[in-house]
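Methods — Computational structure assignment.
A single polypeptide chain was analysed. Its primary sequence is given first, followed by the predicted tertiary structure written as structure tokens.
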Amino acid sequence: MRKATIILISLMIVSFAILSVNALDIKITPVSPYDTSVETPPQKWYEDAYKFVVNETLMTNSVIRREQSENGSYSVVYVDFLASNPITRSEIATIISRYNGSYDTIESSRYLASTAPAFVDVPDGQWYTPAAQWAYENGIVNGVGGAYFAPERTITREEFAAMLYRYTEYLEVDTSARVDYSDFADSDSVSEWATDAMSWAVAEGLISGKPGKLLAPQDTITRAEVATVIYRYNNEVKAHRDIWDGSIW
């Protein structure tokens, strides 16, 4: 009887441990803080895009938890791509800046960072300041009114399409591709200022519809979606310059 009770209690403890782990929905990889080679396992439909943007240092994994190792010698860092998280205007400006990766981008950023900021809410010395300044100087981003950039505001699908469209124009690459996207159920919800960019992005295969035949131009775009669009852009539009190698910034 005593033996059966001990076995039952042991099974309950194991079951609780398993349920606790499952409840966390762990899709993360424990790595040493000194190890930069380990990546979160690619997940589902954005696997190739994930590999591309992380390997090229265009986007990074995010630290979401720390704890001491078993022997207490170092903190174990758990990282995840946070694929379903929305992305901000400052992050998009930085991704495009890194993707451009050319000498003139770096030199322009250094020059602009030493001059008066283009936006009142982009102070000197922030991690995104050079990218925001460069993107503004080259017509890739616009303010949101009153000389504000709104760096922490999440970006929509049509705003991202517009920024990529302007970046391609900046590279003096052909942006004449167009497609009639009126068969999308919400085609009328595309803002007037974004119609050319969205038509171009759909024609180039950069942006595809969501379930229900929706373009969802006003929806915020997720990190996984941004990675996928950048990956497609690199393969299809071929408007890129030498990709940033992480050695300058």
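Note: The first strand starts at residue 29 and ends at 31.
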